[in-house]
Amino acid sequence: MLVNLLVIEIPILSTFMSYYHANTYLNAYLNACFNTYLNAYLNACFNNYLNACLNACFDAC
After folding, report:
1. How far is CA 39 from CA 17, 42, 50, in A?
2. Could you give the CA distance from residue 51 to residue 45 in angstroms, rounded to a whole number?
3. Is the pTM of this model over 0.85?
4. Three-class HEC string of 9-47
5. Cβ burial 45-58 (10 Å sphere, 16+ → b, else e)
6. CA 16 → CA 5, 6, 22, 24, 30, distances in Å?
7. What single DSSP character describes residue 1?
8. What is the pLDDT along the chain (61 residues), one digit of tens a residue?
């Protein structure tokens, strides 16, 4: 009985591990893409805001 359980369990475990590694690589890839786009978007927003603030300050001088 134990041998039968091991024969069934090992492919399930290997399939789970392969899905886990594929999910890890996909997660890392999507995380890198998301960070790149989010960083660019927030950088543009902050740049525009800071530029407007500094222009207002210099115009007031």
Report:
1. 32, 5, 16
2. 10
3. no
4. HHHHHHHHHHHHHHHHHHHHHHHHHHHHHHHHHHHHHHH
5. eeeeeeeeeeeeee
6. 16, 15, 10, 12, 21
7. -
8. 455 555 555 556 666 667 777 778 888 888 999 999 999 999 999 999 999 999 999 889 8
